[in-house]
Amino acid sequence: MVNLDINNVQIITIGKEQYSSDNSNWTNNNSIAVLNDLSPNNTWSNWGASQWDLFFLDHNGNYVEDFNINTWDYNKIYNSIMNIISGCTDSESENYNSNATIDDGSCELAIENLIVPVQYGLTSIYPNPFNPITTVFYSIPEYGYTSITINDLSGRLLKTLTNTKLNSGDYKVNWNASSYPSGVYLIKMEYGVFKQVLKVVLLK
User: Fold this and answer.
1) Mean per-residue pLDDT pooled into runs of 10, the chain (204 residues)
2) Architecture of 121-202 per CATH?
3) Is the entire prediction scored with pTM above 0.85?
């Protein structure tokens, strides 16, 4: 871990005695302190521990997981530590983790920092009048189902331009009316309970 510049992991060992030739290999040549758990070994009993068990605690000392390392598995140990100390380290993010010391790229922009359109709905149709292609510009304030349709003056549905869920933002969609006759058409937007209709003129 030190070789990977991960130096914020604290190792605490619990043994039935302090240093001996038997435990020097797992105390880094006796450089890691051993917490004595003298007979009747209440610490081991309370934790349900057995020899070679490795327990993982988070920054607040809360239990996360444990497993036996009699069969050494470096990747499993590394991944367990990384799961505890990794997270979003940007304090301005929505999912900031105050206990994380390694950023895992999961930061999400706080909702108050998102660029939300001031105006939403059908913002423009250009050109209008048109022949045969026009562009419909529209905006939505937050993630939601959005529908843009072409209708005749009686309200009959002629074509669907957009019918999907979209994130907050500004959008545009083209309507190619080459197969439709000249006339006045209605472009209708539905977003949740919001509805808006604008007229467009096709001149051929």
Assistant:
1) 53 57 53 61 72 74 79 80 76 73 66 53 90 92 90 92 90 94 93 89 90
2) Sandwich (2.60)
3) no
